[in-house]
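Q: What does the assembled structure look like for these inputs?
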Amino acid sequence: MNQTATGPILTTDGTPLKISLQKAERKNKIKAVVLVLPLILFLLITFIIPIVDMLMRSVDDRHINTVFPKTFEVYKNWDRQDLPPEKIYEAMFFEVLESKGFNIGKASTRMNYSKSGWKSLLKKSKRKFKTIEEGPYKEQMIAFDKRWADPTYWQALGEMVDPVTMGYYLNSVDLRYDMNKDIIQQPENRRIYNKTWFKTFKVAFLVTLFCLIMGYPIAYLLSTLPLKYSNLLMICVLLPFWTSLLVRTAAWMIILQQKGVFNDIMVWLGLISNENRWQLMYNETGTLITMTQILLPFMVLPLYSVMKTIPPTYMRAALNLGATPMHAFYKVYLPNSVPGISAGALLVFIISIGYFITPELVGGKDGQLIGHWIAYHLKTTLNWGLSAALGSVLLATMLALYWVYNKLVGIENLRLG
Amino acid sequence: MFKLIKVAFLGLISLAFVSSAFADITFVSWGGAYTMSQQKAYIDTWSKGSGVTVENYNGGLGEIKAQVEAGNVTWDVVDVLPDQAITGCDEGLFEKLDQSAFIDDLVVPPVSECIVPQIFWSYVAFYDPAAFPGKKPKKMKDFFDVKKFPGKRGIHTWANALIEMALVADGVKPGKVYDVMSTPEGIDRAFAKLDTIKDHVIFWSAGSKPLEFIASGEAVMSLAYNGRVGAAILSEGKNFEYIWDGQVLEQEYLVVIKGSKNVEEAKEFVAHASTAQALADQAKWIPYGPMRKSSIDIIKKGEPWFNTGVDILPHMPTTSKRLKKSVIADPFWWADNGAEVNERFSAWKGG
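A:
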């Protein structure tokens, strides 16, 4: 048998061609990896790690369990009726007394989320406990501060006894654990998140809709006008896009306020009376108007880039074949522009649900979308667990939207340009 | 030889840079007329003051906690409210400070070991007299009376001071407010009172906003930080009137952030910023009340003390007449109940 016909093809130095090709390829692969390495590292540091950290924080209840391990151990066997037995008081006494550094401060902040009052109780108690020399501790603690005899304080601890908790997620949809870790509704006046979620999605949906209604004709004009006009129009779309968000928001505030430009003009025209000026700001109307204007370019640009690729001959052909302009548009142009519509709508919707600064400034009391609460708990209450849970729900919603979109339209139809 | 001279010369220059009196610290405060008063009173007068970078923030411990947890502290000295001072000190976000220089000179005892004293200030209601040609609002209950005094009210977006004011408007004595607030019925009562103005409020969160509300006519009355109103009256000649009734007296402190890279200089700075002279000098620029007794003595001797040549003590929230009508804010109550009451307040706002 002829060896060269069946055996591996060799290069001039005798190594098989396959291997030497692989060698050359490997070099290229390494080069490619090295080239994208900075990007991968960048994504890892600025994107993956923070998201993982956020997900961890949203279920993390470890700290309090390291401060009160013994208390929680005996707590688990308590029937949660009336007041706890002496041994729980005793365990609590020693763990408060022996806690080091800032552990007790952090733990008391955590406990204060479920029952207001723990913070000052522990702070005062730590000082006082140093003077209590021997047990039984229950009576002495109660004698020092009667809150130690309030069962609701003890019951509030029930939700913290495991190092991993779903409590923050429950809070983010107006639920909570009771003392037996059964899931119950928040008390009436603490139910704020479901309303906020609803409001957030409503605003995002309406803004997307308005952007589509206003952006579609603009994009159409842009793609069909002769170059010298379309360039000018394009500048008009892009200029506000390049202007600082805060500047645009402030400009809207000047226009929309009750003694602002718009109301002045309406009064001057005699359309409304001076006393009945419209309230266009510090409510949902203001949020919708301003957000629509700010997010409009995110709708126009993907629409434009898709419409640009629809040959004008299609429409002409349809008209030629006897379709009315409406029918031709509906049957031919619209389906061809769907990738642009969906890309724009998805983009605007996703930006909208996380929007923070504009609703905060022009929205007044209606402007508190979910972003407001994430920032509030980050900045003011330091309840980062709840912030993380709210953020994770937001992230999950976006992924779900993406999934639905992929099922309905197909992600390969998404075109940004 | 020339090379040697050159090296020595360059070395000298760099040495000069290093050893120049140049504190490299970042000081974070609330902006506007208030920060300006701090700049004039104790940054400009400090020997290393030219190295102080000033930044603004809107309160809250979030940024500070993030910096401390990440081990990358870029803020050194921060101007904080009492409940922040308590929580931040408990959680180990602030340095413990030497308080021996002023501890016996304070009007009220310090709320934590991490602070140096600054000022007393008030949440106070004010209005433009032009908006009320007839009867003028005089009492806190007038602020809550939309029949007698129709028009929008500007209020802040958080519950502190609003609960207290609502109760005063409902007839609770300023000294008894926290007793009432410590019962669930008391909080219900405050919210019921807030309900009466709910459809007549617009909200602010930045201290400059209420002045805009009143100046533009967007609101007829607003709550504000008294110093901002005072600075507008005294420095800009604005015609505003205060309602000195049921105002809520708050405190303000400086803290040094734990893990600050310039901790010694930061401590030196806060010591300078809390001298009796520095606190008195601050009142030349803004009508807030110094927390040190000896500062008040300095001002008394120096009147007219304000930079425009008027007496400043009558404009302070701490005159004895005004103190009688003030609710003295209880930071411990708010450190305990702030989160829960603010949740309820937000539900109230949105619902």
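The mean pLDDT of chain A is 88.
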